[in-house]
Amino acid sequence: VQLRASGGGLVQAGDSLRLSCAASGRTFSTYSMGWFRQALGKEREFVASISGNSRTVRYADSVKGRFTVFRDNSQNTAYLQMSSLKPEDTSVYFCAATGRGISSQAAGYDYWGQGTQVTVSS
Fold it and tell me: Which has the closest alpha carbon to 118: 4, 8, 6?
């Protein structure tokens, strides 16, 4: 599975942004998808994840109520809708895929996209 994340950019605090993660292959629906982020000088942290059939979603406490993860299996694409962005959301955002079941741990994912930069100014 090859993943390509896109949609990052420079926004102001309070703005919204939608990230996309396009996947190759014909078995996208069998993979759980995750979003992680890594700020400069910090460790990669979990943001959100969604099961292959979208029945299960998980969020980090820091983004709960502001971010929404969803997917369109017909388009082989997962999304992260980010609202009420804060300067502390500034990070490189990565999407990841796993065939081992939904996880909030980076080690639970087998495939990673290249990352897209999100910068939120105050």
Answer: 8
